[in-house]
User: What shape does this take?
Amino acid sequence: MIFAQPYWLALLALLPVLIFVYMRTIKKRHVSLKVSRFEAMSGAKTWVVYARNWLQWLRWVVMALLIFALARPQKIWYEEETDAQAIDIMLAVDVSASMLSKDFEPDRLSAVKDIANEFISKRKQDRIGLTIFSGTSFTQCPLTEDHRILTAFINNMQVGRLPEGTAIGSGLATAVNHLKDSLSNSKVVILMTDGENNAGQILPLQSAAIAKALGVRAYVIGMGKNGTVESPTSKRLDGTYVFGMRPMTLDTANLVKIAEITNGKFYAAHNTTELQQIYAAIDQLERTHIKVQSVPKTTDLFFWFLNAAISLLALELLLRWGPLRVITV
Assistant: This one.
């Protein structure tokens, strides 16, 4: 506890003087009665007599409390103010049928959901959005600081809601378009795909050139391994997929060029562990600059002393003019 106006506490030095003067003059202010024998007054003192002897001390306590109130006691505490240079990040996720392949645990898309959510939980200061693409692209969630909503959209990603195909160029372009008006000093797209570009009206390298012109950096993650993988082979009438072993290829050449053009980086993820390591590496590369300053805050406590003083003064007056009243004749 501190005092905002501590010089008022000097008045406490007057209290001993006032008490001393009061005690020296107390006999002059009371009527004395002389009796021949002490035994004549035996039993004359009651609780009222003893209580009146202590009544004046209530006023001294009231004065002390009022002096403390004048000094404005305060409780001091510290609040952290954060000045963060946040990063705007768009996740561009491939949701084509091949993202259900089983070389990740339990499949590629599920692994992306889990690790992306873990990544987001560490980026509390950043705005993050979500673009999904297969045959076309769509902004599932705009840039937001409400990561709970973003997490809900990520968990709700499903294969089959967009036309079939893999429009890498369109997915990247949609994410970049959403970042073009960003005022952030750092704008990033994390592009995740497992296939070759075979759909869309814009080529991947064209999208990369646009990203570079707008100052957007792309971290490209190629998911899956070349070879035979358990993957969807056909689609049933009810919308579910038939799985079978089939050969898979990843067009790393174009993905590497996208990263190079945008001054980003390409990563190859062959399993869930590697994908997690890649996100950890990106998290270290794109660090939000945070400046934390401790700011002192105070809460006034004088009203507690003032309330106590008023309550004791009211009690003293009630006693003095009530049961402890002195009647002179």
Notes: The mean pLDDT is 85. The chain has nine helices and eleven strands.
